Amino acid sequence: MTRVSWRVLGGTAVATAAAVAAGAAIAALVLSPASPQALETPSAISSAPVGSQPFDDARSVTVEFALGGATTLASPGDGRVTSFTCAAGGTITSGDSALSIDGAPILTLATRIPLWRDLVEEDTGDDVRAVQQELSRLGEPITVDGVLGRETLDALERRFRDLGDRAELDGVAASRILWIPAASVAVDECDAGTGATVTAGDPLAVLAAGLTSASAELPEDLVPGQRVLVVDGERLPLGTDGAVTDTAALSALTSSSLVREAIAGEATSFTTTAELTDPIEIAVVPPSAVVAISGATGCVVVDGSARPVDIVGSQLGQTLVRFGDGENLPESVTLHPSESTTCG
């Protein structure tokens, strides 16, 4: 009987396995790419998307102001003061009631002309028009025509009703209207208190001197557009030269905390913020996309063509630019335009 040598067979099997493994390795080397796909150099990015955001161009500004003389608040009628919400440093506001005489609420109105007479229906005059103008400013839907009609009387009835007086009106008694020189006034000192007996014309309080002018020193590199001054949360209109000329705005400044703090410190200026009345939409691009920079202008390349832009700022590593008025924002810009690019 022939004896099979397992040693020989074993060696042959090992050799065969080695040959197969070597063949597989060679095939893998031949058929596999030279390097893993994940390690290949990515294709160069040539453009970047254009983002957009609202922009109010808020700037810190110094506001210089001038004060007029103090005003005495006078009683409109005779009787006993049954309520007077007066406090030094406080405010009195048009459309409200700070004073009651003989239990009747007195309506405060900031009219251009103080009401100097009792009015009846169909009366006409500048004082009637002044009452109508202030009621309209306060939100009453009336016609300002200088004629005391039912429409104006109904508006006054609504105002008195809100104060707790439901009497129907066939006219306007001057003793029921407390005149103040501005929509909101600051009080320096109180001359009368609850329980006092007063006659028409008696002093009730001394009002803080009102502002006769105010002007903000605006930077030269502002984005074009109408601006407002932000004071105590209110947005007050500014002229293109930085002046505050609106009567209501000057009144609001007079009673603002910033002005009162400045006056208390014997200063004639304060610092606040000026911003665009209506924010504009601006483009957000990478800094490398803006070339041919000169001052606050430059250009970007869109679809192979250079377009001029105004540079309005930077934020979080991005450049904020403004395209021309009426121009649509592009979807993307060239990321690295040639340094020789010009805007034409």
TrEMBL record:
Q: Where is the signal peptide?
A: 1-27
**Keyword annotations from UniProtKB, A to Z:** Signal
User: InterPro entries attached here?
Assistant: PGBD-like_sf, PGBDSf
Q: What is this protein called?
A: Peptidoglycan-binding protein
Protein's organism: Labedella gwakjiensis
